[in-house]
Amino acid sequence: MPKLILVRHGQSLWNLEDRFTGWVDVPLTDLGREEARRAGQKLAGFEINVAYTSTLARAQETLKVMTETMGVTLPTIRDQALNERHYGDLQGLNKARTAEKYGKEQVHIWRRSFDVPPPNGESLEMTAARTLPFFERCILGDIQQGKNVLVVAHGNSNRSIVMSLDKLSNEEVLALNLGTAIPVVYDLSPEGEVLSKEVLS
Fold first, then answer.
1. Which one of 9, 35, 61, 122 is the catalytic residue?
2. What is the pLDDT of residues 112-148, one digit of tens each?
3. How many H-runs (helices) and E-runs (strands) does the chain carry?
4. Of residues 35, 61, 84, 122, which has the active-site annotation?
5. Can you state the percent helix, strand and coil of the chain, rounding each to 5?
6. 40 annotated ligand-binding residue
7. Which GO terms describe its biological process (predicted)?
8. Is residue 19 within 8 Å of residue 90, measured between CB atoms?
């Protein structure tokens, strides 16, 4: 049965600085590269046929470090549909200072809710509206051909995929947080139904 492996990128510079990143292209930190190496080590025994990633450098660099660690070269598709959610006016702002300005509850809603976007940005619902059609058309298309697929993307693009696969409600997804560079391995049926799930933390 085909496997789908989802990985959020390793720690980025703005993760370290506790800033909203969104579509701003920031590099990995040394810790982020080490996290990517550890993810590659955890996946060293897996046969993977194709990789998908976003158009943002932190995801692409994570994938590069992972495949180098695994000693493999994978055909790779890069697509904006897998980009992080766009944080709009919050991009570049420090999260703690933003919470002081707008209140912790409001910032938590902007970060975690399904359908409330930050000012001039995307909600998770809006992110899913671009991520899931691409996932269903392209990534599940590979799964249906029996391929094992690695997706290295972002907290929210991957959250939208997990929400769909795990059939989470709008309320349940509030508690979903994906750690940096921790592989989530699904065994899927050719139709894309989840048969098993393992988090390689």
1. 9
2. 889 999 999 999 999 999 999 999 999 999 999 999 9
3. 8, 6
4. 84
5. 45, 15, 40
6. no
7. gluconeogenesis; glycolytic process
8. no
CATH of domain 3-199: 3.40.50.1240
Does the annotation flag 86 for ligand binding? yes
Beta strand spans in 155-193 (E) = 184-188
Distance CA 11, CA 30 (A): 8
SS3 state at 198: strand
Indicate the pTM of the whole model: 0.95
Q: Angle at the Cα of 28 (from 35 to 64), degrees rounded to 5?
A: 70
In whole angstroms, what is the distance from residue 38 CA to residue 69 CA?
Answer: 8
84 as an active site residue: the answer is yes
**CA separation for the pair 127, 85 (Å, rounded):** 6
Task: Map tokens 């899931």 to a residue.
Answer: 132
Map out the domains of the chain as residue ranges. 3-199
Short-list 11, 10, 8, 12, CA closest to 27: 12
Q: Annotated binding residue at 8?
A: yes
